[in-house]
Design brief:
The chain is α+β, with helices and mostly antiparallel strands. The chain is 29% helix and 28% strand. The protein has 3 domains: 85 residues, 3-Layer(aba) Sandwich (Rossmann fold); 61 residues, ATP-grasp fold, A domain (Dna Ligase, domain 1, 2-Layer Sandwich), CATH 3.30.1490.20; 166 residues, ATP-grasp fold, B domain (D-amino Acid Aminotransferase, Chain A, domain 1, 2-Layer Sandwich), CATH 3.30.470. α1 packs across α11, α3 packs antiparallel against α4 and α4 packs across α5. The protein starts with 6 loop residues before the first strand and ends with a strand. It binds adenosine monophosphate. Adenosine monophosphate (AMP) binds next to β14.
């Protein structure tokens, strides 16, 4: 057990790291953030910050010497760096969880082997493969890079065969997969935390709405069309967590369809669709992630209110802060980012 007073290392310096650091601090831990960017939302609330590339072995060694346990808030870290760090200090979740989640093809195959059902897909490693994939799956479809995609980036939609050249060019010829378009009624996510003792706590399932591939809102409770699919989806998420011997928060995103939940993607970390748990449940995703990483028992995921709504503040939305502060039901979270860009996650607001 890593006791309060110890130092937790976090790889990655964005808003997820910031909220992890705040949860850790409120439980009496110190946080040391390592990330390469000049501006670090997590660094602003951490006891120590190292600005270094994740591949800088000397920096990782100094980082390891200063912490008692490490975790990550960012998925696109070379797993070799995580494996190196793990030779020096315990790291949760493990590099195995990260490796599966970094590659859309590996992730879909892994989840399928456990009984999950992703949208029909086809690997695409060349322009010629794309024609084969279109013939196999039909259109519409969406071409996604296997690696490094997020918030709808690294994706191109195809409506007709004439879109193939542009889609292939848009992804820069990287290894990709073509996914059949899913005619879904709703989107939802399963968030769970798994402790070092194998105990699993899952949160009530939020209904997520996306705009332009970016999460806009998460609402709890979810409507009946989602609730009917929750037992299957949660059972799958538990099997994934157990198969990976995952420690920490794990998120699986799903499409709700008339023939059941369709797996979309997973993240071996705290997730934007779980931000509402800060005020909306007794133990937030951030608190339970810290508890799991430190080998503590998990906290209750019970709701604190009958209805919870989280809305992302994207780009210029951040300027609504004064109006939101004046609303007694609103819990405002700003991430301290200086540059406002369209679609950039600047903060969020939760209404109970
Ligand atoms: P992703 O980054 O894969 O989560 O995709 C971002 C968003 O694009 C999803 O949350 C959906 O709203 C939409 N999307 C992605 N893949 C599909 C698909 N195969 N069918 C329909 N919508 C999709």
């Amino acid at each position: 057990m890593i006791e309060p007073g110890s130092t937790i290392g976090i790889l990655g310096g964005g808003q997820l790291g910031r909220m992890l650091a705040l949860a850790a601090a409120s439980m009496g831990y110190r946080v040391h953030v390592l990330a390469p960017e000049a501006e670090l939302p997590a660094g602003d609330v951490a006891a120590e910050v190292t600005r270094a590339d994740y591949t800088d072995r000397a920096a990782l060694d100094r980082f390891a010497a200063s912490i008692d346990v490490a975790t990550f808030e960012f998925e696109n870290i070379d797993t070799a760096a995580i494996r190196h760090l793990a030779t020096r200090v315990p790291v949760f979740p493990s590099a195995d969880s990260l490796e599966v989640a970094q590659d859309r093809l590996a992730e879909k195959r892994f989840v399928e082997a456990l009984g999950g059902r992703p949208a029909a897909y086809h690997p695409v490693d060349s322009r010629a493969d794309l024609d084969v994939a279109i013939a196999a799956l039909g259109l519409p479809a969406v071409l996604k890079t296997r690696r490094m995609g997020y918030d709808g980036k690294g994706q191109a939609r195809l409506h007709s065969a004439g879109d193939a050249d542009a889609a292939w060019a848009a992804l820069g010829g990287q290894p990709a997969i073509l996914e059949a378009w899913v005619d879904f009624s709703h989107e939802f996510s399963v968030l769970l935390a798994r402790g070092q003792d194998g105990d699993i706590a899952s949160w009530p399932v939020p209904h997520n709405s996306h705009e332009g591939g970016i999460l806009a809102t998460s609402r709890v409770p979810a409507p009946p069309e989602i609730m009917a699919l929750v037992p299957d989806a949660v059972a799958l998420a538990r099997r994934v967590a157990e198969a990976l011997d995952h420690v920490g928060v794990l998120t699986l995103e799903f499409f709700a369809t008339p023939d059941g939940p369709r797996f979309n993607e997973m993240a071996p970390r705290v997730h934007n669709s779980g931000h509402w748990t800060i005020e909306g449940t007794r133990a937030s995703q951030f608190e339970n992630h810290i508890r799991a990483v430190c080998g503590l028992p998990l906290g209750s995921t019970a709701l604190t209110a009958p209805e919870v709504l989280m809305r992302n503040l994207l780009g210029e939305d951040v300027h609504d802060w004064a109006k939101l502060l004046a609303d007694g039901r609103a819990h405002l979270h700003l991430y301290g980012k200086s540059e406002v860009k369209p679609g950039r996650k600047m903060g969020h607001v939760t209404f109970l």
